[in-house]
Amino acid sequence: MRLAFLALVAAAAPMRAQQWPVHSMDRPRPAVVDPGPERPPVAPPSDAIVLFDGKSLAQWQSEDSTAAKWVVRDGYFEVAPHTGAIVTKRGFGDVQLHVEWATPVPATGEGQDRGNSGVFMMTHYEIQVLDSYHSDTYADGQAAAVYGQTPPLVNASRPPGQWQTYDIIFHRPRFTADGAVRDSARVTVLHNGVLVQDNTIITGWTVHGQRAHYAPHADRLPLLLQDHGHPVRYRDIWIRELREHQ
Length: 246
Ligand code: MG
Prior knowledge:
The chain is built from one helix and 17 strands. Strands 2, 4, 5, 7, 11, 14, 15 and 17 form an eight-stranded antiparallel β-sheet that branches. Strands 3-6-16-8-9 form a five-stranded antiparallel β-sheet, with no helix packed on it. Strands 1-10 form a two-stranded parallel sheet. It is globular and about 50 Å long. By secondary structure, it is mainly β. Helix content is 4%, strand content 34%. The chain has a single domain, classed as Exo-inulinase, domain 1 (Jelly Rolls, Sandwich), CATH 2.60.120. Magnesium ion (MG) binds next to β8 and β9.
């Protein structure tokens, strides 16, 4: 009886993935999946907040609250390298986010120095944007990785210059009154329609080269797009605020 109980407990214990060192080059790279050709954007759902309509950065600003300095052109906007990140003027918590991006052509650089940008949920949690098409880097830093934490399930990258989509479902972390983590943030990501993060636990704020940890923050914070010095393009960005079941 006692043994049977123990076996049940063991079976119910959560499966733990191997803990790889941050940015380990030994960590296996996800299998490559061809997501099919790029597609034109489709109209957002009626309750979406449109964050970029192809014409204006009115929903965005620099982190110091001055006007966003990135370049709007022909229905997309482009990172103006070394002008800094841009953030939404309003804050968000639990969301569904759609964003389309394209890395530069001709592609230059290697690894992290090749079409690098990033979609930071709540300013602090990066879903990596990178040219990962026939281009290698550490698994937890390739396109659609939770940067420095969790590689994508597969590599569904399109070639540089082609439009790629992220559909992201993000649940914010919950903190107790004394600042402890009650619930970690979680994220689901479809890259070009392919599931690459499946309700992945986010282990803390995005940092480079070290283990992440949480610091408490507000229930709503801006969405941030990273300036990593590369002219990555974005278009068709919309977001839906998620409400709990009534
Ligand atoms: Mg990045």
